[in-house]
């Protein structure tokens, strides 16, 4: 454990103007507050914050960060308060300690709760000052180094899983690869002990049997570059055990099939020398196609810059080579922390791009599970690069689609997207983007996000925005249905009602707004009696029972409302515009629309029935038909040709039975109305390929 004077000397070595007295006060304060508390290892508890502060000095962070590291557990684990810390060490330290404490509280909560309000607060604190995250990552790294002292297997695995799922990805996102690799290795040892032992054992065998092969290859690389007049540093190492295991799992290969276990790093003096070195290596040894990546011209979102290539050495051995400058290497290993160490006057504010996305996700998330899902999406996946037509670069997770790209450019662009051009060609919105694609989004002011997009988008930002838009649309459309029902209910009152009566009804029923009242009516949270009584107290006393109420004077139109949002079309009867329809209203759900002759209705559903109409010029629904085709070549093609000729899209086609003579198919078609569907059925019946065609 670092002694008091050793810690102070470390800080003064790189920050001579640091407040020595404050550093000493903080050291003494944490020792006094933690007192006789012990860690699982048996060491005094205060040894932990002291070691965390030591990790911060290795990154050459400022005195406020060092003091925060010393005090980071005092508010949570002792009688210390944020107010006391502010009085003794100033508002900046108090704010940083409070931010770190918020994340620590998350760890003590349930799985779902953990992702809720405290996670929200932590990301907001982190966006204001990235040092909150730097201290927390050092705190977790030291805890992982001492994890083996915890006796409970379940607790060790829980902490390791949390580290692998949250802290290692966060370290990667701020470019702290040194922290990320060590966290992953320590977590891997706990989560997959057998795999860890096997891989580390095999690596040890290679190390002992290779007879200095890594050093020999490194020397060959250095000599080849020296002969070209390049002054470089070359180092070699085996790949990270967790990285090897991940590659084995992803590619479904054995350890023996991993050919690029050796990795080499070339450090140069300038960007130009990086590219010169790359050219020398490619001329000297055969390059493996598809393995070259230029992160210097297109850095990763966390600032990582390097050239990556893979070569085949003399003995057919594959090796990975990374080429970068000394400054790049420093930034690549410690990310944003390196900026604090070497650019004290240009400190980052923490609002890096991915963090801004996280804040948007936090604001848009509906509940704890959704927040956790979107947060993981934002901090995990590998990245691809895509460009706007004007050459602006955007980094996205692998598997991203034009919709993800549109939301990355701007939320308005995503919300109004109707199509996309990828490299000049019209492509579906669900197309997965590849590295280097140029994406042009086609938009329309009348468009809106579709619920179906959630089936293919991969970014948390896009999912959050789509869900928010769909929820808003759902509220509006349910309120529209509720308003029509409200007018129908109000028409049964003995006298006309005015705006004041509606406002009074909203207050009596305890709603915040008129729209909220309409949504409650639309989802059957209120029955007709309650609404009438709220509008005109005493008016519902002498009403007959609901089954004896007068029939609706007019059908309620669902024109302009969206299937699947404000109402659901019955899966049992698949009503289409032109069918006579009724609605079923159950408490807490939207309206379910059925054809008047639906067998489900005949079975006697215990729910509120509504007389509905499609409204003028209503179009668009899914009709289901059953087609029996003769079992001979070309009949299915002829049937699908009829659908195409009648401009009907096939949504779903299922072969339900087949024998020597016939094949039976249930087909869902996107049609405009009943007349459209009837024309298709008639055309099928007239075909020689079709034995029978009926709507079901």
UniProtKB/TrEMBL annotation:
The entry's keywords: Transferase
Catalysed reaction equations from the record: GTP + ATP = guanosine 3'-diphosphate 5'-triphosphate + AMP
Short name of one Pfam family: TGS
Keyword Metal-binding: no
InterPro entries reported for this sequence: ACT-like_dom_sf, ACT_dom, Beta-grasp_dom_sf, HD/PDEase_dom, HD_domain, NT_sf, RelA/Spo_fam, RelA/SpoT_AH_RIS
Boundaries of every ACT domain copy: 624-696
Entry-linked SUPFAM superfamilies: ACT-like, HD-domain/PDEase-like, Nucleotidyltransferase, TGS-like
Residue ranges of domain TGS in the record: 382-443
Molecular function GO terms recorded: GTP diphosphokinase activity
EC number: 2.7.6.5
Domain HD: 45-144
Assigned protein family: Belongs to the relA/spoT family.
PANTHER family xrefs: BIFUNCTIONAL (P)PPGPP SYNTHASE_HYDROLASE SPOT, GUANOSINE-3',5'-BIS DIPHOSPHATE 3'-PYROPHOSPHOHYDROLASE
Task performed by this protein: In eubacteria ppGpp (guanosine 3'-diphosphate 5'-diphosphate) is a mediator of the stringent response that coordinates a variety of cellular activities in response to changes in nutritional abundance.
UniProt protein name: GTP pyrophosphokinase rsh
Organism: Novosphingobium aquiterrae
Organism lineage string: Bacteria, Pseudomonadati, Pseudomonadota, Alphaproteobacteria, Sphingomonadales
């Amino acid at each position: 454990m670092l002694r008091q004077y050793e810690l102070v000397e470390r800080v003064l070595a790189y920050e001579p103007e640091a407040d020595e007295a404050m550093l000493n006060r903080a050291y003494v304060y944490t020792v006094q507050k933690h007192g006789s508390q012990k860690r699982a290892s048996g060491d005094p508890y205060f040894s932990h914050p002291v070691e965390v502060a030591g990790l911060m000095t290795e990154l050459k962070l400022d005195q406020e960060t060092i003091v925060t590291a010393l005090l980071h557990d005092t508010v949570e684990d002792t009688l210390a308060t944020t107010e006391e810390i502010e009085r003794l060490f100033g508002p900046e330290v108090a704010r940083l300690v409070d931010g770190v404490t918020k994340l620590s509280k998350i760890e003590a909560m349930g799985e779902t709760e953990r992702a809720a309000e405290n996670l929200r607060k932590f990301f907001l604190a982190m966006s204001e000052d990235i040092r909150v995250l730097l201290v927390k990552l050092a705190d977790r790294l030291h805890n992982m180094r001492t994890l083996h002292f915890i006796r409970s297997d379940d607790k060790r695995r829980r902490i390791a899983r949390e580290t692998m799922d949250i802290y290692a990805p966060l370290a990667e996102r701020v470019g702290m690869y040194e922290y990320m690799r060590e966290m992953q290795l320590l977590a891997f040892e706990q989560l997959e002990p057998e795999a860890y032992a096997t891989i580390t054992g095999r690596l040890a065998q290679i190390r002992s049997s290779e007879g200095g092969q890594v050093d020999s290859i490194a020397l060959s690389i250095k000599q080849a570059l020296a002969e070209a007049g390049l002054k470089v540093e070359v180092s070699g190492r085996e790949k990270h055990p967790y990285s090897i295991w991940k590659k084995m799992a992803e590619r479904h290969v054995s350890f023996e099939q991993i050919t690029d276990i050796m990795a080499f790093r070339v450090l140069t003096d300038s960007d130009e020398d990086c590219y010169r070195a790359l050219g020398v290596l490619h001329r000297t040894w055969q390059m493996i196609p598809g393995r070259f990546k230029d992160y210097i011209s297109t850095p990763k979102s966390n600032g990582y810059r390097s050239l990556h290539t893979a070569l085949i050495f003399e003995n057919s051995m594959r090796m990975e080579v990374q080429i970068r400058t000394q400054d790049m290497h420093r930034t690549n290993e410690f990310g944003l922390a390196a900026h604090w160490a070497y650019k004290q006057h240009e400190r980052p504010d923490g609002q890096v791009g991915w963090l801004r996305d996280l804040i948007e996700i936090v604001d848009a998330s509906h509940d704890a599970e959704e927040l956790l899902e979107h947060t993981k999406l934002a901090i995990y996946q590998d990245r691809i690069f895509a460009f706007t037509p004007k050459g602006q670069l955007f980094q996205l997770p692998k598997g991203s689609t034009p919709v993800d790209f549109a939301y990355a450019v701007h939320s308005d662009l995503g919300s109004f997207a109707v199509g996309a051009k990828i490299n000049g060609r019209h492509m579906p919105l669900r197309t997965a983007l590849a590295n280097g694609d140029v994406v042009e989004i086609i938009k329309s002011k009348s468009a809106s996000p579709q619920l179906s997009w959630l089936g293919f988008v991969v970014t948390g930002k896009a999912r959050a925005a789509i869900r928010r838009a769909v929820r808003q649309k759902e509220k509006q459309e349910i309120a529209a249905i509720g308003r029509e029902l409200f007018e129908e209910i109000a028409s049964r009152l003995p006298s006309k009602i005015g705006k004041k009566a509606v406002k009074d009804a909203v207050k009596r029923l305890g709603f915040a707004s008129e729209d909220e009242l309409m949504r409650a009516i639309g989802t059957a949270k209120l029955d007709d009696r309650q609404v009438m009584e709220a509008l005109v107290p005493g008016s519902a006393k002498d009403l007959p029972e609901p089954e004896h109420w007068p029939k609706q004077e007019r059908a309620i139109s669902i024109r302009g409302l969206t299937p699947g949002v404000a109402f659901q079309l019955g899966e049992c009867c698949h009503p289409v515009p032109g069918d006579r329809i009724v609605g079923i209203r159950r408490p807490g759900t939207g309206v379910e629309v059925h054809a008047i002759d639906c067998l489900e209705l005949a079975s006697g559903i215990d729910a509120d029935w509504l007389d509905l109409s499609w409204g003028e010029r209503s179009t668009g629904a899914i009709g289901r038909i059953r087609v029996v085709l003769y079992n001979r070549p070309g009949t299915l093609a002829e049937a699908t040709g009829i659908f195409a000729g009648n401009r009907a899209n096939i949504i779903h086609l299922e072969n339900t039975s087949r024998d020597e003579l016939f094949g039976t198919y249930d087909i869902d078609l996107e049609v405009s109305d009943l007349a459209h569907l009837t024309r298709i059925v008639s055309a099928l019946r007239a075909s020689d390929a079709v034995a029978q065609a009926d709507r079901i």
